[in-house]
Write a structure and sequence with these properties.
Layout lengths: L1 H22 L3 E4 L5 H10 L5 H15 L8 E7 L2 E10 L6 E9 L8 H15 L4 E7 L5 H9 L3 E11 L2 E9 L1
Parallel strand pairs: 4-5
Antiparallel strand pairs: 1-2, 2-3, 3-4, 5-7, 6-7
Amino acid sequence: MVILVMRAARQTGSARRRHRLRHCPPMIRPAQPDDVPVLLRLTEQTGLFLPHEIDTLSELLTDYFAGLEQWQHRAHVLQRGNQAGGFVYYAPASLTDRTWYLYWIVVARELQGQGWGSQLLRFVEDDLRQRGARLLLIETSSRPAYAPTRAFYQKRGYVPCATVPDFYADGDDLVIFIRRL
């Protein structure tokens, strides 16, 4: 009898924690070096990125924490409670007048479609407006698996402005989206 009561109390406590987490507002904070394994895992678990792309992200984040911040590169994590659910990485485009690139926007597969991506993108846009940015460019793939990603950008006011055929591989075009800030 005591065991059942304790088990029920434990389940109730666990249910309370899940309820609090679900109702805890997400927050965006600067990425930290100890986030890297989680961000790589989130990216890999989306199922969209190839192994060499995950390796590139790993190198990019290593370089970021080794000093790219001083070059105005930005990395932020969206989390609820202690759960990181997504991140963005963006930086100014070299040799341009206030043009920026959104290099990475990733939302955990199980959290997609719940507004996390929109919140991250709004954060980037607001931050860049405060910095006086003019344009934000986003490059993505033409592969069918990326159709929801392209629709996401278009729904948020991004316009496809260029396509480079076979850029990533034969049959995998580079699609460039742009938005004036």
